[in-house]
Specification:
Number of strands of chain A: 11
Order of helices and strands of chain B: EHEHEH
Order of helices and strands of chain A: EHEEHEHEEEEHEEEH
Shape of chain B: elongated
CATH superfamily of chain B: Phosphoribosylformylglycinamidine synthase subunit PurS
Strand order of the largest sheet of chain A: 2-1-3-4-11-10-9-6-7
CATH class of chain A: Alpha Beta
Structural class of chain A: alpha/beta
Oligomer: heterodimer
Radius of gyration of chain B: 17 Å
Radius of gyration of chain A: 16 Å
Helix content of chain A: 10-25%
Strand content of chain A: 15-25%
CATH topology of chain A: Rossmann fold
CATH topology of chain B: Mth169, Chain: A
Number of domains of chain A: 1
Largest sheet of chain B: 3 strands, antiparallel
Strand content of chain B: 15-25%
Largest interface: A-B, 20 and 14 residues
Chain lengths: ~230, ~100
């Protein structure tokens, strides 16, 4: 069975939700610890949401220097699928695995809502189960989710199809180009602010027209990486 | 103990929501004449012994590497903290108040 690691940093909040999402998708969830130098032989890594190190200095900045991140960076450079959700996305940009930065929401307030997203690229390890143009609804909850990058980086991301998720209907935080998530050139490292791991189980997801809290759109993110791992095995 | 001071500011072209909120509060206090607020960070790095040019250079590198994220922030100054200057300034104000 595929093994997907979830790193717990001091202040991680959604690590257990991410583990649960991985199990529901059909893989083994392997807890990883920020202070270790050991990825325990996992096939992919998730950096979960939360407030690592209290978001001191900058969101994700101190976690990006944690011992385990050396291994994560080396594995990512070697092609291992890595997903950063929310604080995990902030850690990925601080670790320079993804370009750009995330700043305080434009309206100055923490935002928590069920957010519609468009899949802009199905050519990543974490979106291969989608078709480009698909729309999903997953929870979004952040205070510093405004994606910014230089004009040159934005051109590069857009030109190379590296914007993976884009906000639809509402831009909740002032992100440039409505960007919700991006990938690296190779397509194995993906970061996004919204939370697919909170939309994997009926009864606990966003509302849908069919029933309250029945949304499980996030599951396909985890199924995508599994399909890729199985195809490679 | 000598101190190296590093000043970091959000890039001027970026929105600073915290600064904007503070400007709103200044307005609510009824104070006029303030056009903008930008909130940055000041780091004080205490070091052993006198600050050499090499240490300053290292602090500059550290500022770019860790203290600031140069995608969203600028390191606007790295300098030796004039502890005496600060004290003089402070006691000057205090003395002024007692007169």
């Amino acid at each position: 069975m595929s093994r997907i690691g979830v790193v717990t940093f001091p202040g991680s909040l959604d690590d257990r939700d991410a583990q649960r999402a991985i199990r529901i998708a059909g893989a083994d969830a392997v807890p990883l610890w920020h202070a270790d130098h050991d990825l325990r032989g996992v096939d992919a890594v998730v950096l979960p949401g939360g407030f690592s190190y209290g978001d001191y200095l900058r969101c994700g900045a101190i976690a990006a220097q944690a011992p385990i991140m050396r291994e994560v960076i080396a594995a990512a450079d070697a092609g291992m699928p890595v997903l950063g959700i929310c604080n995990g996305f902030q850690i990925l940009v601080e670790a320079h695995l993804l370009p750009g930065g995330l700043i305080r929401n434009e309206q100055g307030a923490f935002v928590c809502r069920d957010q519609r997203l468009r899949i802009e690229s199905a050519d990543t390890a974490w979106t291969s189960d989608f078709e480009a143009g698909d729309e999903i609804v997953v929870p979004l909850k952040n205070g510093e989710g405004g994606y910014i990058a230089s004009a040159e980086t934005l051109r590069e991301l857009e030109g190379e199809g590296r914007v993976v998720f884009r906000y639809v209907d509402v831009n909740p935080n002032g992100s440039m180009n409505d960007i919700a998530g991006i990938t690296n050139a190779r397509g194995n490292v993906v970061g996004l602010m919204p939370h697919p791991e909170h939309a994997v189980e009926p009864g606990f997801g966003p509302d849908t027209p069919a029933a309250m809290r029945s949304g499980v759109d996030g599951l396909r993110v985890f199924r995508s990486v599994l399909a890729g791992l199985l195809a490679r095995a | 103990m000598p101190v190296i001071v590093v000043d970091v500011m959000p890039k001027p072209e970026l929105l600073d929501p915290a600064g904007k909120a503070t400007l709103g509060a200044i307005g609510r206090l009824g104070r006029a004449g303030y056009r903008g607020v930008r909130i940055g960070k000041r780091f004080e790095l205490s070091v052993d012994g006198p600050v050499t040019e090499a240490m300053l250079a290292d602090a500059r590198a550290l500022a770019e590497e860790l203290l600031a994220n140069t995608v969203i922030e600028d390191v606007v100054a790295v300098y030796v903290g004039g502890a005496e200057d600060d004290l003089d300034e402070f006691t000057g104000v205090a003395a002024g108040e007692t007169h």
